[in-house]
Amino acid sequence: MQIDHIFIRATAGAPEAAALRAFGLTEGSGNAHPGQGTANRRFFFANAFLELLWIADETEVTSPLTAPTMLSERLTIGSDASPFGICFHDAGGAFPVFDYKPGYLPQGMSIGIASEAPLAEPMWFCLAGGRPLPPPPIHAAGIARITAVRCTQPSAGALSAAAIASGIGFAQGAEHLLEISFDEEARGMVHDFRPALPLLFRY
Question: pTM, whole model, 2 decimals?
Answer without folding.
Answer: 0.94
